[in-house]
Amino acid sequence: MTRAMVTIEQFEGVKTLLKTKTQAEIMNEHIKYAGQKHWSIDGLNSLTTDQMGLLLYNPNLVTVEPSLEDHLRAAYIGAKSQEFADGLVMAAKLYGINPSIFEGLVEWVPDDQEPAVEPEQA
């Protein structure tokens, strides 16, 4: 049986489309505009016909992977040094991701090579 892996953005994007269109309408449009920038929701234009079909008709056969932002946040929280964390911020910028996704995740102990500590909850 065919399985597919998609990003959380693609999974959520299809759920959003289903609020205004039927499964058949979405599938027909996806086939009609294959290879074109038809969908305005990030990631949907890169879905194959098989992936879209599974998302629409058999979502239980789809594995949703964390987004790049989720991976960057997790790496930032687990960073062992300020330099590594700064590198993750630069990588986010290179990928067009707003670095504000890191704000408030961790506090760094000044002038120390200690790992990040979670900020106090006020």
Q: Could you explain how this protein is built, in words?
A:
- This protein has 122 residues and is mainly alpha-helical.
- Helix content is 43%, strand content 7%.
- It has 5 helices and 2 strands, in the order βαααβαα.
- It has a two-stranded parallel sheet with strand order 1-2.
- The longest helix is centred in the last third of the chain and has 13 residues.
- The protein is elongated.
- The mean pLDDT is 85.
- Return the average pLDDT rounded to an integer: 85
Fraction of residues in β-strands:
5-15%
User: Looking across the biggest beta sheet, what order are the strands in?
Assistant: 1-2
Query: What's the helical proportion of residues?
Result: 40-55%
**Order of SSEs, N→C?**
EHHHEHH
Going by helix content, strand content and strand pairing, the class is mainly alpha
Distance between the amino and carboxyl termini:
50 Å
| DSSP strand tally | 2
